[in-house]
Amino acid sequence: MSSPSTSSWLRSRWFALAVLCAGSLMIILDGSIVTVALPAIQADLGFSPSGLSWTVNAYLIAFGGLLLLAGRLGDLVGRRRMLVTGLAVFTAASVLCGVAWEPWVLLAARFAQGVGGAMASAVSLGMIITLFTEPGERARAIGAFAFTGAAGASVGQVLGGVLTDTLGWNWVFYINLPIGALAIAFALVSLENDRGLGLRRGADALGAVLVTAGVMAGVYTIVQAEHAGWASARTLTLGALSVALLAAFVARQATAATPLLPLRVLRSRNVWGANLIQMLMLAALMSFQILIALYMQNVLKYSASATGSALLPAAVAIGAVSLVVSARLIARFGERAVLVAGLVLLLAARLLLLRLPVEGTFLVDLLPAMLLSGGFGLAMPALTGLGMSGARAEDAGVASGLFNTTQQIGGALGVAALTTVAATRTEALGGTAEALNSGYRLGFGIGGILLVAALVLSVAVLRTPRPARRGTETAEAPVPAA
Fold this sequence. Notes:
This protein is an all-alpha fold. The protein folds into two domains: about 10-190, Growth Hormone, Chain: A (Up-down Bundle); about 265-480, Up-down Bundle (Growth Hormone, Chain: A), CATH 1.20.1250.20. The chain contains 19 helices and no strands. Helix 2 runs parallel beside helix 7 (about 135-165), helix 4 (about 55-75) runs antiparallel to helix 18 (about 395-430) and helix 5 runs antiparallel to helix 6. The protein is globular and about 60 Å long. The relative contact order is 0.13.
């Protein structure tokens, strides 16, 4: 039987944050850990080269397409219920991935993983916002959550190589079983069992179909464009279909009695501005992670494990900044100023990468850019606080789902577009090491342009939230505790 002090600790907000971070770590870790195991999966299950990409795409489509719906459902049925159910679905699907005996089984299980990941991820940020209402504590909590994402993405590449080489590709999925089981058990103990608003407050079935189909069509358009071509009839048709479905969804929300996404959420310039800035920032940063890994392996001839290890300084820098520095700077200077400073550091890193030589060295040519990437540890916590500041308590789940959706779309769009641009440049120059390097530098340059656009929007659109006066609630006030 636990002591009173142990029971109190298990129910503390900071332990609840640790549980939410653990669940997020498992989901983010899975996204990067699987990419390292793809060659072994292809050899064992007999995937075709084109079919193998759907091991990633099946997950992305389900995850990106369901985030907004899952966030709103979390508001309606209870965020803890949605989180625990999502973790359970993700964990069970991970086991099915590990025992997959045919390609179609793995693809179905990866889609199910995406469903569970969306359910858990969509409400996590909203729960953090409602748990931590004091600005300083909220900034520290968001910093820890941002660090979890960066660490999971970086550690996953190293861990994936080790597990695949020593135990087999199946274990990149089995590793989720103990993490998921512990996260579920502690979530039931540490998180408040909120009842939600009830389905009658927002059970817009038509809106759910439109937004899910629209976002899934959009993500599918992005992930297949690299092979079909951005100007192909297929890509343009799918893109037009996605836009039409999302436009119909917005029109539906303006007239529905119980909207899935109350349009009042988008009236806040901080909400729509932060989501747009996040898309630009993540498009630049996710493509950076892929392009720099390709540069190290294809130009510098690093091994997969060496490449993963070389990316660790960026994760350490992001972690140190987000956990130690960001909250103090936000408390002193405000979210917008800290966001701008973080974006400036990220832009400086991209400018350094524009001069990458074919005979580059890690210490001189890569490490400075890795360390400057610690600017993400400033930018992401500040941007998250701004993006959630305009949402009411009852809309925290849908605002969290929206924020996660734009994060996934921005990352997917950036990776697909900038890697395609880099590959096209390389092919045009003949496919040599110099041509590869030229293609990667072009991708870094376009990423820099995206960060400049994010900087301009940060200054022109965003406003540092003012604390709400007691008994009042403003559009730009922090979300009160639920």
